[in-house]
């Protein structure tokens, strides 16, 4: 660790801000309605391909991400997600807001962990609009693009800002 910590001193501090915002109910009123959240990322970290990104993800995708991170992190503890709680007492808005805060805390802890940060699934989750199966294919080299290409393609398309 000796030489590595000296290197850190003479370069600017790496900062990554991740925000989970703007919960939106999709398919409202139908049996398959769900809430998705806007994930805004702003960073100067060399770990990230794009310095800013904005994607929408739903809770089920966070659950998938956590499972994948756990598989690959070895002994590194992966932060907890907010609970599913089918029997939530209080308003739906209150539940959605609690979950939003929990998802944000989850991502804040994840992006501060060097081991978890090295997982390309995390980067595709945060910086591309690929679905879970597309992320898997991309990570395994079976997609039309590499991980970096997928992120850059999304960043250039600006769809992260349209939403």
TrEMBL record:
Q: Name one GO molecular function term.
A: phosphatidylinositol phosphate binding
Q: Does the keyword Membrane apply?
A: yes
So what family is this one in?
A: Belongs to the sorting nexin family.
User: What are the PX domain coordinates in residue numbering?
Assistant: 15-132
Q: Tell me where it resides.
A: Cytoplasm; Endomembrane system; Endosome
- What is this protein identified as? Sorting nexin-11
What PROSITE patterns does the annotation carry?
Answer: PX (PS50195)
Q: What is its main location?
A: cytoplasm
Question: PANTHER family given for it?
Answer: PX DOMAIN-CONTAINING PROTEIN, SORTING NEXIN-11
Membrane-topology descriptor: Peripheral membrane protein
Gene Ontology CC entries for this record: endosome
Q: Pfam families from the xrefs?
A: PX
Q: Which GO terms describe its biological process?
A: intracellular protein transport; vesicle organization
Q: Mind listing the UniProt keywords for this protein, alphabetically?
A: Cytoplasm, Endosome, Lipid-binding, Membrane, Protein transport, Transport
- Is Transport included in the keywords of this UniProt record? yes
């Amino acid at each position: 660790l000796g030489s590595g910590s000296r290197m850190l001193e003479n370069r600017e501090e790496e900062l990554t801000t991740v925000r989970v915002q703007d919960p939106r109910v999709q398919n409202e009123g139908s049996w398959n309605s769900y809430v998705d959240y806007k994930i805004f990322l702003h960073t100067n970290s060399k770990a990230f391909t794009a310095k800013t990104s904005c994607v929408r993800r739903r809770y089920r995708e966070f659950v998938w991400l956590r499972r994948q991170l756990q598989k690959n992190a070895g002994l590194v503890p992966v932060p907890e997600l907010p609970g599913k709680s089918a029997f939530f007492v209080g308003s739906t808005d209150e539940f959605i807001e609690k979950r939003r805060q929990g998802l944000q805390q989850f991502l804040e802890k994840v992006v501060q962990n060097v081991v978890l940060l090295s997982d390309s699934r995390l980067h595709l989750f945060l910086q591309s609009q690929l679905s879970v199966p597309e992320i898997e294919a991309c990570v395994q080299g079976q997609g039309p693009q590499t991980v970096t290409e997928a992120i850059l393609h999304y960043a250039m398309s600006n769809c992260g800002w349209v939403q």
